[in-house]
Amino acid sequence: MSGDQTRVTKISSLTPGPERGTECCLVQIHGPELGKKYVLEETEFTIGRDQHNHIVVDLDNVSRRHARIWTRQGKTFVEDLQSTNGTYLNDREVLQAQPLRSGDLVKVGGSIFKFLDGDNIETQYHETIYTLTIADGLTGINNKRYFLEYLEREMGRSHRYQRTLSLMMFDIDHFKQINDVHGHLAGDYVLREMAQSIKRLVRREQCFARYGGEEFAIVMPEDGPDKARLFAEKIRKLVEDKRFVFEDKDIPVTISIGVAEVASEMSEPSQFIKVADANLYKAKKSGRNRVVG
């Protein structure tokens, strides 16, 4: 959905009033308007594809009037407006009006908004924006920018101290088919669930990141090829055995993995990634759901 665009209706209520001691807002953390802040000063806000909504999200999987955010007696609620694809609060479908707490994630089609509330909303907002510079909004793991900076730093350290360094690149097998059969919301669910499951296995000194689309990477400092391959096999098995269920439908998911070890002639991250990607390609060509490298 990289070509999609989000249009925001310009209304005066999006500017915070000086007399208000506390406020609440939505910050887009996934979608084309990354970091966009919407101050919720009116008692009711609607989100949808139609131009008459307070927040206009022009995506195919967003209904004309998709969701409503409203305030009553100091509490803020989210409600789905019988949209085609549903509204989700912290990955659970909103079937009736649900109260919002600061930090909650509201998913509307291909966009995700983070709800912020409280006296320190500016601090929360700046922390959210900082997180967006290093983390992927959909999966919650590191993003490509952070991954490339981390890999370059670790490659320099590896060459300087003659320490081994391994890289794992992997992606979801037949991911386009998952989107075509089950829909893009199901595809987003698979990406997020898989990433969070793998994240629990990744050590603190390692880097786990979304490289782009359905491709992911793990940098493993001081892990040699044998140890890296064993870890890759463990991850492959974890995904194969995990049950992915979206809207009561099972979605079989497997991944193909390419593993590479840094070499002395590699001076740029792109050279290292190219080798791991080549092994990933071999894994897919030789039948998928396997580790090569």
From TrEMBL:
InterPro entries, A to Z: Diguanylate_Cyclase (IPR050469), FHA_dom (IPR000253), GGDEF_dom (IPR000160), Nucleotide_cyclase (IPR029787), Rev_trsase/Diguanyl_cyclase (IPR043128), SMAD_FHA_dom_sf (IPR008984)
Domain GGDEF: from-to ranges: 163-293
EC number: 2.7.7.65
Domain called FHA: residue spans: 45-94
Catalytic activity reported: 2 GTP = 3',3'-c-di-GMP + 2 diphosphate
Tree of life domain: Bacteria
Listed GO biological process terms: cell adhesion involved in single-species biofilm formation; negative regulation of bacterial-type flagellum-dependent cell motility
GO cellular component, one term: plasma membrane
GO molecular function, one term: diguanylate cyclase activity
Protein name: diguanylate cyclase
Species, as recorded: Corallococcus coralloides (strain ATCC 25202 / DSM 2259 / NBRC 100086 / M2)
Gene designation: yhcK
